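Progress narrative, work stream C.
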Amino acid sequence: MTLPNQIYDPQVGHGLYKRYFDLYERADRCGLDIMLNEHHSTATCVEPAVPLTMSILARTTKTARILALGNPVANRRDPVRIAEEMAMVDVISGGRAEVGFVRGVAQEISPANSNPVLMKERMWEAVDLIVKAWTTHDGPFSWEGEFFHQRQVNIWPRPLQQPHPPIWVPTQTASTARAEGCRRIFDAYRESFVTMHGAEPASDKLAYLGLVFVASRRREALEGARAVQWYIQHNKVAPQFVNVPGYFDAATRVKMLRAQYETGALPSPIAHLAWASIEELVDGGFCFAGEPDEVVEQLLSFHARVGGFGNWLALVQAGTMETDLVAPSMELMAAEVLPALNRELAS
């Protein structure tokens, strides 16, 4: 948040953007889909505008689904603009957009000049407005909500996918407690879905993200996984931007303040992961690393432990990892891991 941007070298940045877009296009040629993330005032994720990245990939890729995970709608003033952006990407890509909505992390409230109070409520109203904008085709409508007031909502273009692109919403809390925590989140979703719809949700309603590195030799795979682990080791935020008044519910904030008083530092939900061994991360379901057969077994085991899910998000690159290191892992994942995994799950 406070690291001066004079440290950023735009010429180096130009080369990095080229590297990353080349990797995205390589993933598309491998038959993989693409997930994009957005952060602000952040040196470890220089992607402040996911809609721009999506629009480029909508034109340069052929078959990959393009997922924004996501749009920080509680920090943006105009949900209708987001509806327009995502609809345009969907049309350009030929119906390959998938749209994630997030509340936004605590440290980005200040640079967004946003109010941390009632962010969840603001987020869900924004999502409702966006969905209505996508699905209303009989002329303009007005919106009078608690947080947003819109006139003449009548977006052009409308999405290619009908009634609208798939919607994603990520969560974290219990998943930091190993596979058992992820199981609690998945089970809670399944129970809520049954209550609302009277049927079990399809597996594609659930997804999981982990660190991933695949290599033909186990030693190389573990070394590669340690390089991916860089991301959680170096994702640092000053304390004043973490425990923002109004962002957390009262009970959570009390726990954080008590821990800070007792230890002298604010607790981090991923502190136990940053310097854990790769073996520990694999055992907890946070990382999938090894030769292709090993990674398939790790995934099948984790899939069973959490009750199943239909989407696997793989974080395959971090920090200074070059294309020559990342691409072979990604290609092995596409060529050997995913086909074997799908065969096993189908049987």
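Work stream C, second folded protein:
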Amino acid sequence: MMNASSILTPSSKKALDLVQLGKLEKAFRTWATSTPGKKRQLSRLRVLLVFLIIRYTGARLNEVLTLDVSDFDLKGSRIRFRKEEEADGREVQIPKQLVNELKTTLPLLGNTGDVLNVDAAHVRRRCYNCAEAAGIPRELGTPESIRKSRAVELLQSNVPLPVVQRIMGHSTPALAASYVDFSEEDIRRVERFHLELEAKHKTSARNRFYGKIEKVVVGDVQASIVMIAVDGHRVVSVITSHSQRQLGLKPGSLIAAEVKAPWVIIHGGADAPKCTAENQFMGSVTKISPGKVNSEVVVKISESTELCSILTEKSRQRLQIKEGDTVWAVFNAASVVINVD
């Protein structure tokens, strides 16, 4: 069974970051389009599709190679992956750019049967070669490393662990009672929701919570929205009553709550800070990126949730914050931006 700690650990060095993934994809595309002859080019396009599917779904190599054309639901932006012990398999949402690529390329490859039936050893060799062409160590160019990189990318974007587990094809533990009632369809909606936000932002965002609205209190001017995330955290947001009505926010609505890093304040020590911030989360510092003026501090508050804070380097030194420290990450309700599904 996969858990966040097995991915977001020092072994994550065996995963590619977003820049490396971009370089590897560029190397694959350059290779795929740099050969004369239609037959050879189609063969290379087939391998490119195998790479892209692993890159954007986190699927296993053997799962991709055994895909049948009927497993592609391009209208619904989904791919169904099957395993021998599964009757129906699992469906994974795919981003719009991959949908468009499949619509263009599958007809060229025949669009029938096991359209991606390629020798696994050939795919592995091509992954190694493209990694080297991109200036990436060979060991990071394996299909397994690319698959793991997608999982790390999702977790660092605060996609809830049960959602990542379902995408990756791992058994998902029963959600604790504190997670409210999240059905399989809710999990699928969170997955689609993340892909939409990812496409808009173009980059991963740590400071994001996915969940359902637990409580709405509407006042004359402002409304208080209390969301409970999939991992059990409660996040409070204050928006205008007009926005609450316009967005149709009510208990049970699926939303994403985001807060920008500069609005996240760090308090050192294990004791809860005495402040008016409605959102207060205790965690441990997992990463510090110091700068001459400002520094970035990443705080892990649960198995699959991290918060990033931007503070002045002078403040960080005054607080004597270092990796491994227990701290509190806090932010005001007015700083929370709500996105609706």
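The longest strand covers residues 208-218. No further action is required on this item.
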